[in-house]
Structures are given as structure tokens and as C-alpha cells.
């Protein structure tokens, strides 16, 4: 899987698979994932959204969980966004 880490505040392309790492007020992190699956046909994509309510103690742990989620969804190109809660 190819990954692109975006600068804080920069958004992934609207048609791009991505995870958003969110810093919570507590200082912990969570991720939200969006994957567009082009099956059965590109003209009828299926969008998978995932909100992971689990808080991770570090940014890197949230990214690792997001990467695992993306692998499970067979994402080929993943953008990683960073946002405040």
C-alpha cells in the first residue's frame, strides 16, 4: 500500500481513500477511515466509512491502527490526514 502523509489541515482528494487522525482534547488520538471500493463497477462505487471510537495514547499508534484498517479494506493508495477534534 502506498501512503501519503498530508500536512496538518490539508485534506485528501474527495475520491481518495484516507484516514483522518484526530487529536482529542484529552491528548489521545483516534482515527476515522474512508475507503471507496470500485466494485462491482467504477460507475457504482461503494464507500466504506469507519469511525473508530477507541482512543490511542499516541499519534503513531492511531496511524498504525488506521493502516491496519486500510489493509483490511485492500486500499492501494492511502492518504493520512491530521485534524483537531
Report the uncertain regions.
Answer: none
Summarize model confidence as the mean pLDDT. 84
Strand order of the largest sheet: 1-5-2-3-4
Strand content: 35-45%
Note the total helix count. Answer: 1
Residues in helices, as a percent range: 10-25%
Task: Describe the protein in words.
Helices cover 16% and strands 39% of the residues. Strand 2 (18-23) and strand 3 (29-37) form a beta hairpin. It has 85 residues and is of the alpha/beta class.
Short description:
The chain is of the alpha/beta class.
Which secondary structure elements does this structure contain, and how are they paired or packed?
Blueprint: E1 2-5, E2 18-23, E3 29-37, E4 46-51, H1 59-72, E5 77-84
Parallel strand pairs: 1-5, 2-5
Antiparallel strand pairs: 2-3, 3-4
Characteristic terms for this protein:
single chain; 85 residues; alpha/beta; five-stranded mixed beta sheet
Amino acid at each position: 500500500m502506498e501512503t501519503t502523509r498530508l500536512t496538518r489541515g490539508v485534506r485528501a482528494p474527495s475520491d481518495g481513500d484516507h484516514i483522518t487522525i484526530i487529536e482529542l482534547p484529552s491528548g489521545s488520538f483516534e482515527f476515522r477511515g474512508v475507503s471507496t471500493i470500485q466494485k462491482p463497477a467504477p460507475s457504482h462505487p461503494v464507500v466504506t466509512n469507519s469511525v473508530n471510537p477507541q482512543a490511542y495514547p499516541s499519534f503513531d499508534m492511531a496511524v498504525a491502527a488506521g493502516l491496519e484498517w486500510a489493509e483490511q479494506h485492500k486500499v492501494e493508495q492511502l492518504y493520512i490526514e491530521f485534524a483537531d477534534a
